[in-house]
Amino acid sequence: MRQPSLSFDQLFLEHSGSGKRYLVAGVDEAGRGPLAGSVVAAAVILDPEHKIAGITDSKAIAEDKREELAELIRERALAWAVAETSVAEIDQLNILHASMLAMARAIEQLPTTPDHCLIDGNRCPVSPYNCQAVVKGDTFVQEISAASILAKVSRDRTMHELHKMHPQYGFDRHKGYPTKQHLQALEEYGVLEHHRRSFGPVRSVIARTECAGESR
Q1: Inter-residue contact 76 to 165 (CB < 8 Å)
Q2: Which CATH number fits domain 8-165: 3.40.109.10, 3.90.105.10, 3.30.420.10, 1.10.10.10?
Q3: Contact 164, 144 (CB under 8 A)
Q4: What are phi and psi of 200, to 5 degrees?
Q5: Cα-flanking dihedrals φ and ψ of residue 95, to 5°?
Q6: Contacts of 71 (CB under 8 A, 6+ apart)
Q7: How many Å apart are CA 69 and CA 132, to the nearest integer?
């Protein structure tokens, strides 16, 4: 497993020779692909004086380890924030724009103003701050890796709560992604208010249900 490169904060420690720390926020989201649940984004400004070992892309970390790292990030980061866009907003805006909105909200909610934001991916959300897209940033940039961990942990917790409400769908296992189990549950139990109606598999179930109703 390749570890992230040096924190970008370390590359900009002195800003214009003033001795002011150059604050860099990493930003990432979780939940673009699922058929259910919100998109969650996080923004994190790490503290180089309080390093956290083991930070890397959240997808490469076991769930229990992600929980441990998320707790350390919340304790040791200079600043962090988590935000989301709802299922209704996803259906209204489309998943790309909803993801950008979630990241913009996370940046806005940071209690400390960043000098620069590093965004995972190939495009940036609309923000009043300087932003730079970093392809595969969740693998190579510590700040973005930290944000990916907070976003993933936050979203997974929400899906576990959804599982308690609707255990027949198995949200605790697939987290809303279009697995065979989830697709079978959709067919058997129908579409919930938590499902993204603009996504193809959900639209198909709705259409078949409507057709069946009309044929009666």
Answers
A1: no
A2: 3.30.420.10
A3: no
A4: -50, -55
A5: -65, -35
A6: none
A7: 25
pTM of the model: 0.89
pLDDT above 80 for 6: no
User: For 121-134, how does the pLDDT look when each residue is reduced to its tens digit (9 = 90+)?
Assistant: 999 999 999 999 99
Residues 6+ apart with CB under 8 A from 5: 140, 141, 142
Q: List the 116-120 sheet strands across, edge first.
A: 79-85, 39-45, 24-30, 116-120, 131-134
Tens-place pLDDT, residues 188-203: 999 999 999 999 999 9
Instruction: Determine the residue type at 144.
Output: I
Q: Are 69 and 61 in contact (CB under 8 A)?
A: yes
Q: Which two tokens stand for residue 23?
A: 């604050």
DSSP assignment of 68-110: HHHHHHHHHSSEEEEEEE-HHHHHHH-HHHHHHHHHHHHHHT-
pLDDT at residue number 216: 52
